[in-house]
Amino acid sequence: MSGGASLGEVVYSVDIEVPVQAAWDELTKLGKVQVPMMNTVLECDLEPGSPMRYYNPSRKRILVVGTLMEIDPPHRMVHTYRFTDLDESETLVTWQLDEIPTGVRVTVTHGRFTDQTGTHKRVDGGWAFILKTLKAVLETGKPPLMARLAYGAMSALSFLQPKKTLAENVLKYEERPPGA
């Protein structure tokens, strides 16, 4: 795995010994838990302009929202990204999946940071965790022990998350007129 942060962009990549379609299918799986994506459930129409929402497994909380900007299956997906518990601007995430002789290279680039924000601090290292978990899930069928422990703790402590992450509150926020 390679990666790291620069001033304005976080870039991580991992080589996975599966066909590119398998990685794409996991990253765009709808309505079921995506274990590598912090054990969340993605809701999206997978059409440019569609809202994207990553729910916790109980679907009571929405942890990340965005808008799908570009999609070119099974190689590229670009979307905006905002943690619902932070009052920060949207950033931009680009997924690039390239076929390599041993399988697929998955690269995630996260940018459009306006400053050293809470989002930047979370994703610098968070993407490494996600890609490591993606590799393990696709190659072995199960996440690493650290991921399972982290997800168990996240689930047990979900009641501590701010109320603004509750699905009904996030959806109300999204329905506000611009600038409200």
Automatic annotation (TrEMBL):
InterPro entries: ASHA1/2-like_C (IPR013538), START-like_dom_sf (IPR023393). It holds the Pfam family AHSA1. It comes from the Bacteria. Residues 19-139 form the Activator of Hsp90 ATPase homologue 1/2-like C-terminal domain. Belongs to the AHA1 family. This is SRPBCC domain-containing protein.
